[in-house]
Amino acid sequence: MTDTFDALIETGASADVSGWDFSWLDGRATEERPVWGYARQLADRLSIASASLDIQTGGGEVLAQAETFPPTAVATESWPPNVIHATRLLHPRGVVVVADPDEPPLPFADEAFDLVTSRHPATIWWEEIARVLQPGGTYFAQHVGPASVFELIEFFLGPQPTARRGRHPDDETTAAQAAGLEIVNLQTARLRIEIRDIAAVVYLLRKVIWWVPGFSVEKYRDRLRDLHDLIQQDGPFIAHSTRHLIEARRL
C-alpha cells in the first residue's frame, strides 16, 4: 500500500542528513552522473601530488574514495556535523580536517599546495585558491552549474530569474583568470533527476539547505502537499542538475 502523505513527510523529516552521502535516496530518487568521473580523476591527481587541499569536503565521502594521498593532505569543512563525519572518515587515512567558515582567508600559508580540489563548493574564492597554490599548481573541481535543480527550487520559491545566472561557467572562467589562474579544461553537463516521493523532497531540502533557505515542513506544508499530489497523479517529478568540471593552473 502506498504510504500516506503524513507518513512520507515524517520519513523524510526524521532521516539523518549529516555527511554528504545520498544513499538514503536509493529507490526514492535518481540522478544521472557526468561522464567524466570526477572521483576517479581526483584519485589519479592525489596519487601524484605532494601537498593537497580539499575545500568544503562535506562529510569527506568523495575524497575518501582515493586509494592514496600525498604526504600532506588537508580538507576543510564549515558545517559542524560534516566536520565530525569527515574527521572520522579521513583522519585514519592521514588527512587532516580543518574546521573553516568558508570565508576568506583560507587558514594556510601562501603557495602551500600543489593541488587544490573541491566537489560542489557552495562558495568559490578564486583569489584564495590562487594564493595557496604553488606556481604551476592545479585547481581541479566539479562545480554546480547555473539553474541547477531550479524546477524544484522554483516550485517552492517561484521564479528566480536573477539567480538563474549564478555559477555560470563563463563567469567563473573570467573570475579565475582575473585571480591569476589559467583554465586548461572545462566541461559541462545537464543531468536528469527523478524524484519519486515527497519523503525524498523533504530529505533533499533539509540536506541541501541553500536550495530553499529557511525550509521547514511546517512553513512549506501546503506546497509539499501540492507536490505530493502531483507525483501521485503524474509520476516522478523531473528536474535537471547542471555540473561543470574545471581544471585551472596557477601561472
From TrEMBL:
Keywords: Methyltransferase, Transferase. The keyword Oxidoreductase does not apply. Gene3D superfamilies: Vaccinia Virus protein VP39 (3.40.50.150). GO terms for molecular function: S-adenosylmethionine-dependent methyltransferase activity. It comes from the Bacteria. The keyword rRNA-binding does not apply. Residues 53-140 form the Methyltransferase type domain. GO terms for biological process: methylation. CDD domains: AdoMet_MTases. This is SAM-dependent methyltransferase. It comes from Brachybacterium aquaticum. The lineage of its organism: Bacteria, Bacillati, Actinomycetota, Actinomycetes, Micrococcales.
